[in-house]
Each structure stands twice: as structure tokens, then as C-alpha cells.
């Protein structure tokens, strides 16, 4: 080509956005180096990826041969063609390949007027396989089958995708009209219907080549195709209905899926009754029988988007009309709320944390958030409002807004954000015609810039397109998440406000129905709480009205939103106008979210927080992490003892200790519920605070007894206190040991120590609204018939002459916890000689311990308790594990020093290391102990009272699973895990304990 003298005025590759080294050579090859090509070069520079567009143009020129001159001429004069072609070539590698492979396809882009109608699409796809109507049916029969049909179907379908994508992308290059998202999605859905109609025509010819088809087969679109909101690349979800549902119909359905999968897109029939394991084709009556008896809530939610797509449309509409009443009654099902919550958690948990910012569909503030919220509102209110019986998300938002269920501004903003996210999804899929919802890595600036330009993000001034897109994406995802929370609860607050001129008109009946669907078992009571929190003139009521939509959303994800809302009201009213509380709720989202989780899960923690509200401040974070876990047990113990020692009267000293204990229990319980402490940390913290309270009480009483102290007194922790394994509902098992001062008679010292011990026990055990402080001395020598306090010498004499095997076993957990530390250490030395005897305990003692254990198994389990799920005395529970560990200690600790520990877990670890247990058995017993302890603690947290029996499946078990931080709060899965772990532990215990 001869170059004109105007070449110098043509911008160089760099100014055109071309960065690949061969760009100049490519331009020369096309002859685009003259002034007359200036408009083309300008258009090229506006494409999403000018290098990709130019490379594709060169390939097209090579494949078109002599036909390139015609295209080149048309591009210079036809701005519509220019915008469409360069828009596609710069945004889609896959469609560029299609244009190179079929050079004449560019002529499709010269079409003027609107896109093809559904009828035109169907006629074109049917014509591609030479299909003719099948007499007496709504079906067609193709004349082209096999690989030939696959080839022509793929060509025809890609041509129509090319035309749509070109019209969709033209505005990114030239000043062409922007094609609305809803029009694009609807056209893709109609194209899918046309394609499946053609695939069905091929299936008819292949399944029944020589005879008419007798079966009526309807293809029901589900999901995005059913809602006319399909993506460029997506599976098409379908359900097949046939009359009769015999072999012919099944072969037809299978052939449709096979043909479409090879030529067009994947056809997914997994939304059919029973999913993958169910029959591919059913009659209408068989479908209805399944939905009446077996269908789960998610299946009715899926049917919201069902519509007849292909095949026998009359049968398809019969199906739709028959299932519709069941769809709109789904919100009244007993399991509606827990199933909806499980579905939502499953979606949120399915995305790895590191990908949530990049997931358009399932990530935080993504498409599924919008779709889930809209569908839930449709199900809740659609029973009484036929206007909500629409399939597409955008149409449903409009109907919800018109009906007063969603604010007009909220609906408009949510629609805009939804369409923006869907636009990005379309552009990502167009690039390689692959199904994806994942945004580029933010570090890949080139990929982000390409997406911005493909999505027609045009920054003002010198702003960078990638930066503008990133900011716009962040704004929209935050808006979606905020509106997702507001969508459900702002109308509820407006409904109870009772003001005039509100934008919403949600009736109280609708408000109650919506609350019930969100998990509130007593919607009327919940509305009363909302009125009490928001209806007032003071500033705090206005602040609460702003905060509550988000907090109610968080509460709805807890096991007991009713109890949580009541607790929040009580807490708010008790604090009144306390500025710090509402400021924390408003300015620290972590505080509010964590508080809602605690209040909606645990009666135990809630009651403590109501009496120690200052702990709410600790629910937030600092630069070094959550405040709840920044205080160690030793620091807490020192503070508690120091505070109580400032009071001369024992009653006031113990009251001060109780107050700090209340604060500490609230802190530990909250951290436990929020998954910030593991079970051993919880037990250690609870044991430490118990020890500190004992120390404070004994010290206060000892200081107050007239006549001074005639000796020293130490408190020895036994049982779970000695092992630092206390749970929320545990008593404190202790021994009291005294030692007379020099020159003091032993009897005088014992009398004084007994007075101190009994008074301290009485003060600690006094009636209180706090969790009880029961001190149990039943493990002392001679049990309850023996003296409460003995001297160290008396203990030594008793154990040397009279100790029973159970008393030796009890000493395995003896540890000084309060009082005189020196005396405590001397008692420990004495106990070591008894509990770790040279050569271990003898055969008679082993037999006696086994006999006692058998008696415990036979007699101690409460009447009516389930031995499979009793956490303490049940099969494989705490008793089984602890007795096994203790028998190993009694027999082998004399020669294995690592077994000399009061901790069950440490003893099991040492037994495994010493090969007294296999590594697998040690791990099994440890896991069972941790699982049973976690379950036992969770029971107290949920119910507020001490109990050892896991409940049957239901709301209470779900709450226990939540409190135990079980993934997803799935009570059934939690119980299955507990049974599996304890069953294995029981087998190990029986094998080890009896050997």
C-alpha cells in the first residue's frame, strides 16, 4: 500500500495504548498508517485491549484474504460496525478466534435495528439443523444429526453470541447506545431457549429416526435462564417433565443434554427431585407428589425462577401452575427458617477467606447477597401478594418497592449495584467464553485496567481506569452489603414507628411475617422490643433506629434471636444514656456484631453481661488483637486478690471478689463463644479465677478472726480444680490443710483453721444471682464423715495407714490453689509419695478401682439419661477418659516422670510418648476429652444452668453447636461428630482399662 504524506499526523503505537512490540508492524500490515485511518485508530485506542484488538484484526485480514478490502472499507465509513467489531476484538479472545475461523461472520455485525426476536432466534437455530415441525406435537425434527449437527449448532449459536456481544460492547468504542443489562440477560436466556429447542429437534431425529415421537416432553428452565437473567457463559439449569415418563422421554432428555453439552453449553438437571440420584424425567403428578411430601425449602426457592423453555410448552405451563401454590406457601413450613439460615451460611462458608474480595457471585457484598435477600422477601410476602410472583431479580426488586416492602431508594440503589456487578461478570466471561465470577488479582493492574475499559469505565481527567474501577467496585459491594442488611429491617422499624409520610407501608402483619421468616419465634414480642428501643424523643432512640437494622441482621444468624433482642433491650435500658455504650455500638462494628452473637447464643453470658456491662467495652479490638484475650489468668488473679484485700470486713472482701469474678466470667464466656479461646484455655481461666476467689475469701476471713493466726492454712484443689480443668458449671473440690505455728497446740490450730474454712465456704456459697460458688470437701480422708481440716502430720499418718484406692486416685489431681504457698508445696510432696508409689499400685488396688468404675457406670448415670450423649458419665465421655488416664498414672507414674501431672490431656500425651498407649489411642482419648468438655461447657453457656446431657436434635442442640463454635452451627453434624469421637474413645477405654 502506498503511504500518503499525511502519515506523520497519525499517532504512534504508544499514543494508541499499544504496548506490544509488534504493534507498529501490525499497523503497517493492515495499511492503517494514513490520515484516512485516523478515526479507526482512535476507535482502536478506545477498545478494552488495543493490542488484542489489533492482533485479532491482523489475523482476520490473513484469514479473509481478498475479502479484507471490503471490511476495511466498511470500517472507515460505518461507525456502528466499527464500534461493534473493535469492541468485540478488544474484549474477547474467544469471539476473536470465532471471527478468524469464520471470516464471513463479521457481516452479522452490519445488522441494523433491534436484536433478533425470540421467534427469529428459534427459527434461525432450527434452520441450522434443517428442522421441520413434528406433526401432531410441539416438537421439531432435524435433518442434520450427529457431529454435523454439533458443528452447525455451535456455529449458529456463536454467531448469535457474537452479534449480542458486539452490540453490548459497541458503546465502549463508539458513541453507540448502551445496551441495558436486563436486555442482554433476557436475550441470552431467549437464545438458550432457542438453542435447546434446536437441540431437542436433533434429539428427536436421533432417538426416534423412523417413527413419530409419542412422549410429551417439556423442558423447564430454572435459575438464571428461568428468570431471563442468564450470563454469557453459564450452565442452563433445567427440569424435565414428560407424559408419559417412559424410556422414550428419558432418552430424549438425555440426548438433549448430550447434544447441548457438545455444541452449546452444559445443561444441568440437578435441581430435579432427589437431585443426581433422582429420575431424570418424571410425570407432572410424580413431580407434585415429591414436592408435597419430600421437597426442602431450597427446592421451592429454586422454583421461584421456573418457566417453560422448550418442548411441549402447554405441559410446561401445567407444571408451573401446579407447583406455584406450594412455592408461595413455603415460608409457612416449620423448617423454613433453619433451612434458609443453613443455606445462607453454606454459601458464605463456601468461599475461602482470601477470595471473598474477588468473588463477584458468592463474595462479601456479591450477587448472591442480592439474589438471596430478594428471594427471601418474595417467599415471605408472596403468599399474600401476587405482584411479587416474578422471576427476575430486577423485576422482583421493583415489585417489592412498589408494594412497600422495600424503600424506593434502597430498591433503586440495590438494582444499580446488582446490574453493575452483573456487567463485570459478563465482561469477565466474554474474555475467554469461560464461566467465571472471579475478579482479577488487584496486583495485576493490566487485567484490572482491561476489565475497567471493557465495562466502559471512563475516568475523568488523568484518573486511572483501574483505580476508578477498584473504587467503584468497593463502593458497590459495600452498598450491597449495607442494603442487604437494611432491606429486611428498615421496613420493620418504619412499621413500628407509626409516623406519617413514611416511604414504606409495611403492615404489622407483613412485619410479623417477615420477622418470623428471619428466625424470630415471637414476632409480636420482637415488634414490642423494637418499639421500646426506637420510639422516643431522646437522642438514644434515634441512634438505636440507625443501628438496629444491622444488629437485627446479625441477631437473625444466632440460635435465639428473640432472646438476643430481649437481652439487647434490657442492656440498653439498664445503661440508659451511657454515651460510651451507643458510641461503641455505632463506631466499632466488631463490638456490636460480637455482642449480638453472644446475646443471641448464651443465656449464661447474657446474664453476666447485664450485671457486668463494662465487659462490652472489651468486645472490640486493639492494634494487637481482640481485647477479650489480652488479659492473662495470673494478671486477673492478682487484681482480684488485691481488690478484696482492701476491705477489712470479710463480707465486703468476698463481695469485691465476686464482682471481679463476674467480670472475668463474662469476659471468658464471651471470648469462648466468639471462638477466641480453645477449650483448655477456657478451663485454665475458669480454674484460675476460682483459685483467686478462694484465696481472697480465705485470706479475708483469716485476717478477721480474733486472736491472730495460730498457724498456716492452705487450700488444695482436687478434681477439675486441681487439674485446671474447671467448666462453667463445676464446683470446687478442695482439701483444707493446716500447720500450727511454733508453740501452738495442734488442736488450737485445727480449730482456727476450721473456723476460717467453714466461714469462707459459707460466704462463698451464699445465695447470689451470679453463678454459684460451691466449695465441696467430699474428697477429704474418710469422706464427709471425716474432719474438714487436718494438719499436714495428720494427713501423712492417715494416708500411710488408711488410704483407700479411691483416695489415692483422688490425690492424682491434688494441687495447691490458695492459702499459704509453702504449706501447699509441702502437701504436694506428701501427696507425691502416696499417688506415685514405688512400683505402682498393686493388683488388689487395680481391681478395686475397676470395681468402683463399673459401679459408677451402673449406678451414677441419672435416670432417663442417654448413655450415648451424657458428656460426663456416658460412653466415651469425660469419666471414661479420665479414669483411663488415672489408672495409667497410678500404675506407671513412678517410672515415667512425665505422667506426674494433674492435667488429663498432659497425662494422655505422656502415656502416648511412653508407649503406654499407641499414638492413635492417645489422640482418640484426647479428642474425646476435648470434645466432651467443649460440649459440656456449651450446654451451660446456652442454658445458663449446669447440665451434662446433650439434647435431642432441634433448636437447643443447634444452639449448643453454635456455642461450641461448630462450623456452620449445624447441630446434627455436631452430634454426629460427638457420637463418632466418643464411640471410638469408649473402645480405647475398655481395651486399656481392662488390660
Automatic annotation (TrEMBL):
Q: Which family does it belong to?
A: Belongs to the GlnE family.
Instruction: Tell me which NCBIfam families the record gives.
Output: PRK14109.1
Keywords assigned by UniProt?
Answer: ATP-binding, Magnesium, Multifunctional enzyme, Nucleotide-binding, Nucleotidyltransferase, Transferase
Per the UniProt entry, the Enzyme Commission number(s) are 2.7.7.89, 2.7.7.42
What residue stretches are annotated with the Glutamate-ammonia ligase adenylyltransferase repeated domain? 85-320, 593-828
Q: Which reaction does it catalyse?
A: [glutamine synthetase]-O(4)-(5'-adenylyl)-L-tyrosine + phosphate = [glutamine synthetase]-L-tyrosine + ADP; [glutamine synthetase]-L-tyrosine + ATP = [glutamine synthetase]-O(4)-(5'-adenylyl)-L-tyrosine + diphosphate
- Adenylyl transferase as annotated region, ranges: 503-995
Q: Which SUPFAM superfamilies match?
A: Nucleotidyltransferase (SSF81301), Nucleotidyltransferase substrate binding subunit/domain (SSF81593)
Briefly, what is this protein's role? Involved in the regulation of glutamine synthetase GlnA, a key enzyme in the process to assimilate ammonia. When cellular nitrogen levels are high, the C-terminal adenylyl transferase (AT) inactivates GlnA by covalent transfer of an adenylyl group from ATP to specific tyrosine residue of GlnA, thus reducing its activity. Conversely, when nitrogen levels are low, the N-terminal adenylyl removase (AR) activates GlnA by removing the adenylyl group by phosphorolysis, increasing its activity.
Which intervals hold domain PII-uridylyltransferase/Glutamine-synthetase adenylyltransferase?
Answer: 342-488, 868-991
Q: Name one GO molecular function term.
A: [glutamine synthetase]-adenylyl-L-tyrosine phosphorylase activity
Reported cofactor(s): Mg(2+)
Annotated segments matching region Adenylyl removase = 1-492
Per UniProt, the enzyme's principal EC class comes to transferase
Q: What name appears for this protein in its UniProt entry?
A: Bifunctional glutamine synthetase adenylyltransferase/adenylyl-removing enzyme
Amino acid at each position: 500500500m502506498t503511504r500518503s504524506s499525511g502519515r506523520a499526523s497519525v499517532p504512534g503505537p504508544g499514543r494508541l495504548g499499544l504496548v506490544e512490540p509488534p504493534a507498529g508492524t501490525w499497523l503497517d500490515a493492515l495499511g492503517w498508517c494514513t490520515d484516512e485511518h485516523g478515526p479507526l485508530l482512535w476507535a482502536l485506542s478506545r477498545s478494552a485491549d488495543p493490542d488484542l484488538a489489533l492482533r485479532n484484526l491482523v489475523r482476520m485480514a490473513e484469514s479473509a484474504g481478498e475479502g479484507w478490502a471490503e471490511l476495511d472499507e466498511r470500517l472507515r465509513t460505518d461507525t456502528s460496525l466499527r464500534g461493534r467489531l473493535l469492541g468485540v476484538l478488544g474484549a474477547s479472545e474467544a469471539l476473536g478466534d470465532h471471527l478468524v475461523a469464520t471470516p464471513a461472520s463479521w457481516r452479522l455485525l452490519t445488522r441494523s435495528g433491534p436484536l433478533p426476536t425470540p421467534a427469529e432466534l428459534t427459527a434461525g437455530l432450527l434452520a441450522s439443523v434443517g428442522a421441520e415441525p413434528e406433526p401432531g406435537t410441539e416438537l421439531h425434527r432435524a435433518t442434520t444429526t450427529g457431529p454435523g449437527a454439533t458443528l452447525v449448532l455451535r456455529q449458529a449459536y456463536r454467531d448469535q453470541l457474537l452479534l449480542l456481544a458486539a452490540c453490548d460492547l459497541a458503546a465502549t468504542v463508539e458513541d453507540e447506545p448502551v445496551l441495558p443489562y436486563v436486555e442482554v440477560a433476557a436475550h441470552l436466556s431467549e437464545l438458550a431457549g432457542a438453542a435447546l429447542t434446536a437441540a431437542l429437534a436433533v434429539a428427536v431425529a436421533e432417538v426416534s429416526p423412523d417413527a413419530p415421537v409419542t412422549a410429551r416432553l417439556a423442558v423447564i428452565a430454572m435459575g438464571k435462564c428461568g428468570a431471563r437473567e442468564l450470563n454469557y457463559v453459564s450452565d442452563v439449569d433445567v427440569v424435565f417433565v414428560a407424559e408419559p415418563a417412559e424410556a422414550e422421554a428419558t432418552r430424549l432428555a438425555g440426548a438433549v443434554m448430550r447434544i447441548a453439552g457438545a455444541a452449546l453449553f452444559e445443561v444441568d438437571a440437578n435441581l430435579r427431585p432427589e437431585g443426581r440420584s433422582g429420575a431424570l424425567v418424571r410425570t407432572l403428578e410424580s413431580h407434585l407428589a415429591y414436592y408435597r411430601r419430600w421437597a426442602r425449602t431450597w427446592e421451592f426457592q429454586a422454583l421461584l425462577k421456573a418457566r417453560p423453555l422448550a418442548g411441549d410448552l402447554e405441559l410446561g405451563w401445567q407444571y408451573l401452575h401446579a407447583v406455584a401454590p406450594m412455592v408461595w406457601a413455603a415460608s409457612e413450613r416449620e423448617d423454613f427458617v433453619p433451612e434458609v439460615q443453613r443455606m445462607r451460611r453454606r454459601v458464605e462458608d463456601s468461599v475461602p477467606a482470601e477470595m471473598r474480595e474477588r468473588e463477584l457471585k458468592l463474595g462479601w457484598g456479591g450477587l448472591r447477597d442480592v439474589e438471596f435477600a430478594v428471594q427471601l422477601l418474595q417467599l415471605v410476602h408472596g403468599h399474600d401478594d401476587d405482584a411479587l410472583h416474578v422471576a427476575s431479580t430486577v423485576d422482583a426488586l421493583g415489585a417489592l418497592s412498589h408494594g412497600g416492602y422495600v424503600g424506593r431508594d434502597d430498591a433503586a440503589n440495590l438494582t444499580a449495584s446488582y446490574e453493575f456487578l452483573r456487567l463485570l461478570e459478563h465482561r469477565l466471561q466474554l474474555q475467554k467464553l469461560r464461566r467465571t465470577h472471579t475478579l482479577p488479582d488487584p496486583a495485576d493492574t493490566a487485567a484490572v485496567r482491561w476489565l475497567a475499559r471493557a465495562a466502559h469505565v471512563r475516568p475523568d481527567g488523568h484518573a486511572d481506569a483501574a483505580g476508578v474501577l477498584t473504587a467503584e467496585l468497593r463502593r458497590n459491594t459495600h452498598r450491597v452489603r449495607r442494603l442487604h442488611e437494611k432491606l429486611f429491617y428498615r421496613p420493620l422499624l418504619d412499621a413500628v414507628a407509626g409516623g406519617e409520610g413514611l416511604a414504606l407501608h409495611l403492615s404489622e402483619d407483613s412485619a410479623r411475617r417477615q420477622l418470623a421468616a428471619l428466625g424470630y419465634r415471637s414476632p409480636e414480642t420482637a415488634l414490642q422490643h423494637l418499639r421500646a428501643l426506637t420510639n422516643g424523643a431522646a437522642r438514644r432512640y434515634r441512634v438505636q433506629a440507625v443501628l438496629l437494622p444491622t444488629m437485627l441482621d446479625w441477631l437473625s444468624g444466632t440460635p435465639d434471636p428473640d432472646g438476643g433482642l430481649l437481652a439487647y433491650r434490657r442492656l440498653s435500658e439498664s445503661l440508659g444514656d451511657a454515651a460510651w455504650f451507643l458510641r461503641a455500638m455505632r463506631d466499632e462494628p466488631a463490638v456490636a456484631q460480637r455482642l449480638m452473637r453472644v446475646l443471641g447464643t448464651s443465656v449464661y453470658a447474657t446474664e453476666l453481661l447485664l450485671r457486668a456491662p463494662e465487659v462490652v467495652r472489651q468486645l472490640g479490638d486493639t492494634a494487637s488483637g481482640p481485647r477479650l484475650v489480652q488479659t492473662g489468668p495470673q494478671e486477673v488473679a492478682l487484681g482480684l486478690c488485691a481488690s478484696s484485700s482492701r476491705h477489712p470486713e470479710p463480707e465486703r472482701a468476698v463481695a469485691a471478689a465476686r464482682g471481679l469474678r463476674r467480670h472475668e466470667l463474662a469476659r471468658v464466656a464471651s471470648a469462648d463463644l466468639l471462638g477466641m479461646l480453645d477449650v483448655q484455655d477456657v478451663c485454665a481461666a475458669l480454674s484460675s479465677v476460682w483459685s483467686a476467689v478462694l484465696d481472697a475469701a480465705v485470706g479475708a476471713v483469716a485476717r478477721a478472726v480474733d486472736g491472730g493466726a495460730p498457724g498456716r492454712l492452705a487450700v488444695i484443689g482436687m478434681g477439675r480444680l486441681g487439674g485446671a480443668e474447671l467448666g462453667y458449671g463445676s464446683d470446687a473440690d478442695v482439701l483444707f490443710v493446716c500447720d500450727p505455728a511454733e508453740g501452738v497446740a495442734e488442736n488450737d490450730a485445727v480449730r482456727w483453721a476450721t473456723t476460717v474454712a467453714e466461714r469462707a465456704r459459707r460466704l462463698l456459697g451464699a445465695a447470689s444471682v451470679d453463678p454459684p460458688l460451691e466449695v465441696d470437701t467430699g474428697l477429704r480422708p474418710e469422706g464427709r464423715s471425716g474432719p474438714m481440716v487436718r494438719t499436714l502430720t495428720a494427713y501423712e499418718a492417715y494416708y500411710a495407714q488408711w488410704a483407700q484406692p479411691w483416695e489415692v486416685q483422688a490425690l492424682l489431681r491434688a494441687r495447691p490453689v490458695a492459702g499459704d504457698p509453702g504449706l501447699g508445696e509441702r502437701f504436694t510432696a506428701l501427696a507425691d509419695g502416696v499417688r506415685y508409689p514405688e512400683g505402682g499400685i498393686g493388683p488388689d488396688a487395680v481391681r478395686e478401682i475397676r470395681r468402683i468404675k463399673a459401679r459408677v457406670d451402673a449406678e451414677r448415670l441419672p435416670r432417663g439419661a442417654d448413655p450415648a450423649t451424657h458428656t460426663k458419665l456416658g460412653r466415651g465421655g469425660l469419666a471414661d477418659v479420665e479414669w483411663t488416664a488415672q489408672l495409667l498414672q497410678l500404675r506407671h507414674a513412678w517410672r515415667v516422670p512425665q505422667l506426674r501431672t494433674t492435667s488429663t490431656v498432659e497425662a494422655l500425651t505422656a502415656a502416648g510418648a511412653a508407649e503406654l498407649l499407641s499414638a492413635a489411642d492417645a489422640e482418640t482419648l484426647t479428642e474425646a476429652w476435648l470434645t466432651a468438655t467443649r460440649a459440656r461447657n456449651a450446654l451451660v453457656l446456652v442454658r445458663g444452668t449446669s447440665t451434662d446431657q446433650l439434647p435431642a436434635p432441634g433448636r437447643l442442640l443447634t444452639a449448643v453447636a453454635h456455642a461450641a463454635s461448630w462450623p456452620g452451627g449445624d447441630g446434627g453434624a455436631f452430634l454426629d461428630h460427638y457420637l463418632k469421637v466418643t464411640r471410638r474413645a469408649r473402645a480405647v477405654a475398655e481395651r486399656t482399662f481392662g488390660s
